[in-house]
């Protein structure tokens, strides 16, 4: 297997959607909302991608200031390539783009908790989420 890793390579919404379908993230992402998916790809400021030839087989998609915090929104690996080290390499290449004090922050699916703990992440109970349909009163 000759996987090529790229930093901020062009990824189309179609390629991203297909990868999400082939990974375990497709069920938890709005893959039927093309405008949203295009915005997710277009507005990420750090994407590390894994390619098997012309096929996108993995992605680490983040938003970051590169110095203090990097929010890893998606770590998706085609199921055919899972358990082969692709995810770990995507995280290594992501960290290499960040400053020495920059934290990598993510929200994991429950089934992925043991993976992140295994590779060195620590669990933080202080995460809060406000869904868009919820309103904060003025």
UniProtKB/TrEMBL annotation:
InterPro entries: Acetyltransferase_Butenolide, Acyl_CoA_acyltransferase, GNAT_dom. The keyword Transit peptide does not apply. The keyword Magnesium does not apply. One of its GO terms (molecular function) is acyltransferase activity. PROSITE patterns: GNAT. It comes from Candidatus Marithioploca araucensis. Its EC number is 2.3.1.-. This is GNAT family N-acetyltransferase. It comes from the Bacteria.
